[in-house]
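idk why but the lab printer keeps eating my pages so im just putting this in chat instead. protein + benzoic acid:
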Amino acid sequence: METINNTDQQIYSMPRIGDQAPDFEAVTTKGKIKFSDFAKDKWVVMFSHPADFTPVCTTEMSGFAERKSEFEALNTELLGLSIDSIHAHLGWVQNVRQNTGVYFDFPIIADLDMKVAKLYGMLQPNESETAAVRAVFFIDPSKKIRLIMYYPLNVGRNMDEILRSLHALQVSDKHGVALPLNWKQGDKAIVPPPKSLDELNDRLADTTLEKVDWYLAKKDIPNS
Ligand code: BEZ
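predcted complex ->
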């Protein structure tokens, strides 16, 4: 994991794909958590938003809440974060529920001291020194970081793409395949290229694959 010291000698970590997710303890809207004990044997989608009671963030958090059952179907727990107090979180959750009926029924970390935001590279000082950017970390059941998205303060995320990416990671793991441009459930998957002449000859002889050439071949995968 890359660690950056800025001129104020503050430590900003920048976790990368393949790293173990840094451990932390935090206060959330669902009580205290220790990340290493959170969501055992499940995937975690951990995401930050710049601030409570702001418009884009309200649409995004509502998006996570409204599609929570789709994350659950993918064995995934949601975990939000912003650099706000627990009281602000509680007030905002209640306010959105009263206004729209949408309930943010997942833990949201109150990261007032910015400890977790700095640990996960969510605080990017040239974008904002006080608000977390819109980050999404996809963390597998072994607590390894598998995919990271960063969006600036002024552009909201795409929930279809977040769910598609999570599903693609799980399908890739399960079937040992790679997923092409715009892959979605039901599409063919890419078979890893051959690594020896024997494998290459087997590939050329295989009539079950859809082949553009020996290095670009696709196959059907069962719905999963
Ligand atoms: C918003 O969520 O609307 C927002 C938050 C911080 C900066 C800009 C927009």
